[in-house]
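Predict the assembly for these two chains.
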Amino acid sequence: MVDYDVETETLVYERPDSLTDVSTHYCPGCTHGTAHRLIAEVLDEMQLKANTIGVASVGCSVFAYNYFDFDFVQSPHGRAPALATGIKRVLPNRTVFTYQGDGDMASIGMGEIVHAAARGENITVFFINNTNYGMTGGQMAPTTLPGQKTTSSPNGRDVESQGYPIRVAELISQLDGASYVVRRSLNDPKNIRQAKKAIRTAFEVQQRGLGFSMIEFLSICPTNWGMTPVSALKWLEEKMITYYPLGDYKVHPAIAEIKF
Amino acid sequence: MVREMMKGNEAVAEAAIRAGVAAYFGYPITPQTELLEYMAKRMPELGRAFVQAESELGAINMVYGAACTGQRVMSSSSSPGVSLMMEGISYISGTELPAVLVDVMRGGPGLGNIAPAQGDYNQIVHGGGHGEYHAIVLAPASVQESVDLTVTAFDLAEKYRSVVVILTDGSIGQMMEPCEMPPFKPMKTVFPEWATNGAEGRGKRVLTSINLDPAAQEVTNFRLMRRWQEIEASEVKYKTYYMEDAKFAVTGFGSCGRLALSAVRAARAEGIKVGLIRPITVSPFPVKLFEELSHKLDALLVVEMNNGQMLEDVLLATRHQIPVEFYGRMGGVVPFPDEVLDEIRRVSKGSLDTIGHPRDRWLKRMAQKDL
């Protein structure tokens, strides 16, 4: 780490307590870092760090436990909502969240996420949608857009033979057990601010025992998309938000009364 | 203490509750379902966790999560369901967590049927999940023994941070027998130093089975293997019957060991000096016992409700120093004691053909019976 010599008086931006002081393995420009930081900031603000148990998944975020400074477990591919269920059921007073990518959740883990939401498990799920399998080198994910080129859809996703993308937030919002389901984007300051607000809301929902909360984050993968971070952010704005509209898909009536 | 009539599956559930199980996660499958149903009623009554999962994958991974907190946790299933749990069993083993699983075996492969069988021996005893791990496997032969071994299972799981499987079958799971329940253990209030239960007042803890550095992964695997050596040295359990003056022995585990005992008694009545060895831990396997017996006995007969899976462990332990014969029924067919008695008579007559593998000789004999 580079040690910046900054006077405390002039320090306006520092590492949240809930993050460890290490460099991440994420690629330059990747929005995992943004999502990690927002979650950590909210846990700091709510003073939940010592109370929280995170569940990492399989994919680029497999090592999330290295970057958060509180208890963490690491799940088999797709099963994070089942692990979180197990933890929360024996420790109902702890804050429990999963952090999963689109291959992990929307493909191999579709059964676990749907049923955790249907049961109304009082957990929070952070879902990173970057339209591909990042860790294994950019294969087609359930969220890959029609026509999008990946290493396993080299001619572009052909919906006739490879099917259509899954809009996860919309799907989960149909379940009565889900209390708070929203989609946010990590592409610009305004959207990032709104993403943070949603994270706060989700943890407030869990604190109040209101049930299942999930935030889908539209994210970028410059390395596997073969773009610069700037053009990747532009692609997210132009292509992804069109297919995956931002918004609140399910908000339990009691959530409107939450003030923070 | 009062003895009461209980069904095997329900008795195991009640024993687990008395052993202090804090959470149960399961999925319906015959012939195990009564265990799940019993837990569905009892666990909420006691303020403990119960979830009927969406699948066996879900159930074993809920066990995985709850085990991370250091609580006593369990699941139960039957053969096809246990196949689905293999992923979780490997991960739980790789993360070095205690967990108890009950496999009420049924006929297979595939969907098979719901009759009692022992075809999961290889899957449970010799892995099933990926990578280097061992599970401790206990094989009860009665409802009472199922109860006693359930309590043992939780203690062993915690002592060795290991998965412990109670390997039983549809007959013991479904039968009713008088049994005595153990006293209630107090719920755990102190949790191990590895438990991820919130970092209040201490540094963070991480539980994971990933290790990208092969050399570091190998360190874990060596630790697992050395722990297994310790288990092999101190946890082997078996029961012997009529072995004092035996010239021949029958061996079988679980319900098959029990029905073989009827055949052994009948053979004794005919004057045949035969005894029975019933391994209670099929993993760790009583290797030393079989090694010693191979210097004393004239022949061994292995009886299983499968195609000769424990047979291979017996052959390894006896190192072909004495004739070993095999008799098995498969696919949910339970042998009658008379079938075993016929085999004991045949073996005790001596002059056994020992060419080839005992399984091949068995298949040849069965073909003569149009099987």
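Residues 189-207 of chain A form the longest helix (19 residues). The radius of gyration of chain A is 18 Å.
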